[in-house]
Amino acid sequence: MTRESYHDTEQHSPDNVVWNWQILAEVGNIQAQLKLALIYDHGDETVRDPGRALSWYRKAADHGNADAQCILGLKYYKGRHVEVNYLEAAHYFLLAADQGNADAQLFLAMMFESGQGVTQNIEAAFSLYKKSSLQGNALAQFSLGMLYEQGAQAVSGSEAIPADRARAVACYRIASASGNLAARGYCEALADQLSPGDQILAESFATMLDITGAEDIDHFVSHSSILTPLLKKKAKLVYCATMG
C-alpha cells in the first residue's frame, strides 16, 4: 500500500468519521449532534453505545431538533434503553409535533386516543391524525380511517367523533396507496357497504387527502382535475366539514 492510499484510508476510517462528527457536535452543531446520536444508536460507524446515543439525542432535542425529540419520545414510549415513561414520551412528542413532525403527531395522537401519559382527548387525537395524514403518514391515514369507521364517544369534555364510512373508506384508500398493507383489506370490506352516493363522497374525499399544500379550499377545488364540475360543490362541503 502506498503512503497516499494509506493516508486516504486513515482519513475515512470509522473512528475518524465519528471523531469528525464529534468535533462538530461539541461546538453546538445540531445536525452533527443528531448524526452522532444515530451513529452510537445503530453502531453503523463505531461500537454501539446506547448511553452515548441518548446523551446526544437529548442535546439535539434541547436545541430544538424535531427528529431527535421524536426519537426520544419513542424511546420513552417503548422503553428502549430507558424505562417506559409516558409523561416524558408525551413531552418530547409534543415538542416535535409542534414543529410539524408527522411521526410525532401520529404518536401523540395515539397517546391522546388511549390516554397514555396525557388526559384522554379524542378531539386532540383526531386533529393530530389529520395533520399527520396530510403529510403522507400512512399509519396516521389508517388510524384516521379507523376513527371515522368506528366513531368515538365524547371523553373528558372533548367532542364525540361521529362515524362516517365514506370518509373511512377514503382514508383507507389513501393509506393503502401510501403503503399501509392492512388498509387495503379494510377499504375493500367497507367500500362494498357504501351506497352509490357515499361512494362518490369517498372518492371526492380521497382526492382531497391526496392533494397537500393547498392554501385554501377554492385553490384546491380549482386544481382538482379528478372531480367533475358536478362534484365540486359536494367536494367543497366535504372538505370544509372535515378539514376545517
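the 2nd protein, sequnce then structure:
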Amino acid sequence: MATCIQEIDHDLAFDFLTEQETSFLEKNKSSLNYKKGEIILKQGTFANNILFVKTGLCKIYIQGLQKKIVLTLKKEKNFLGITSLYYEKKLYLYSASAIEDCEIDFYDKEAFKEVMKKNALFTNEIVKYLNHNSVKIYGRIACLAEKNARGKVADMLLCFANNLFGCFEFTIPLSRMDLAEFADLSMENTIRILKEFDKDGIITLDGKKLSIINVEALERISQFG
C-alpha cells in the first residue's frame, strides 16, 4: 500500500462555527492570490497567520542544509501553517509554494485561537486535521527512509492517483525537478524509473499524461520496494 494517505477536506470545520464566530474570523481574514512557483509561506519565518487553501495546489517542504524534502502536496480545502498554532517559538515549521495558481485565505492566528477556545466542536475538527496530517507525514518519513528508488516512484504515483485525482489517469502536476524532490531521488533516476514502468506495461506515459495500467504491480513495488 502507498504510504501517502488520502487527503480529506477540512472546510467542514467552518460549519461548526456560529454566525458570530464566522463574522469574527471574516473580520480577521485577508486573501491573496499566488502564481505558480511563488512562495506562500517560508520555513523559519514568524507564524502570525493560519492559512487555508481556497483554490489551487501547493507543495509542502522543509529545507535542510543540503537538500529540500517534500513532505506532501496540499490541494484546496486544506490548512497550512496550523502546526505552528501553539509552537512556542512562533515560527512556521515548513515552507509552502504554489504548484498551480492558488487563492489563499489568511486568518489571524490569535483570532483563530480565540474561536478555538470557545467552540469545542470546531477545535475537535482542527485536532482531527492535525492527527490526519501527522499520519501522512509519518508515512512519508517511512517511505523516504525505507524504500528503494523504484518503491519511492511507485509510492509517488499511487499518491497522485489516490490522494490528488481519485483516478488512475491524470496529468502530472509537477515539473521534473519537483517530481525528483518528491521522490527524494535525482531527476535522472526518477525519469529513468518512469520509463522503466512504461516499458514494463505498468504505466503509459505521454509527456505529462500518465495512466496506471497495472495497479496491483505498482502497489507491490510500492509495498516491497
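The two ends are 11 Å apart (CA to CA). The longest strand covers residues 68-75.
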